[in-house]
Amino acid sequence: MSVQQSGFQGFANPVDPSPAELRAWAYEPDSVPLQSMPQDWDLLVAGDRLVPTLFELAMDRSCPARRFALHCLYIYAADGIRTNFRAHPRRRLRKLVEQAEQAGDELMTTWAHNARMLLARPDLFNYHDWCEGGLVRQGKRLG
Questions:
Q1: Which distant-in-sequence residues (6+ apart) come within 8 Å of 41 by Cβ?
Q2: By the 8 A CB rule, do 26 and 64 touch?
Q3: Which of 53, 56, 64, 76 is such that its CA lies 20 to 30 A from the CA of 94?
Q4: Nearest C-alpha neighbor of 73 from the set 39, 104, 27
Q5: Domain of life here (predicted)?
Q6: How far does CA 48 lie from the centroid of its chain?
Q7: What is the rounded CA–CA span in Å between residue 96 and residue 109?
Q8: What would the pLDDT profile of 53-97 be if each residue is shown by its tens digit?
Q9: CB-based contacts of 95: which residues, under 8 Å, 6+ apart?
């Protein structure tokens, strides 16, 4: 009888995961289902410390948790823009948007387009779309 060892053993602190823990979980998301995470976990991880990891995961077409990472990027963009960049640095968001435009696939270029649209027209913010995954599920490109 053999016991198969999982590459991801869980979070030391799910409220504040490390980039390495988040990356490991993203490639084995069934090891700790989203439903078992703390409430609003997406809002907790969508911050400056983890956004480079989330961006990397969202750019990886083979990442099983790619859509979750993309969802967190929508939260990050909306949070930065809606707080007039008090929550997150404008420069960081701009760099992510430019990277997505240059090297991203359709999902990522749509995110970049939508972030630019929200920057130009903050009235396009809708909590359901930006913070509850509506834009990710719909794949909608704002006009």
A1: 14, 15, 34
A2: yes
A3: 64
A4: 104
A5: Bacteria
A6: 11
A7: 11
A8: 999 999 999 999 999 999 999 999 999 999 999 999 999 999 999
A9: none
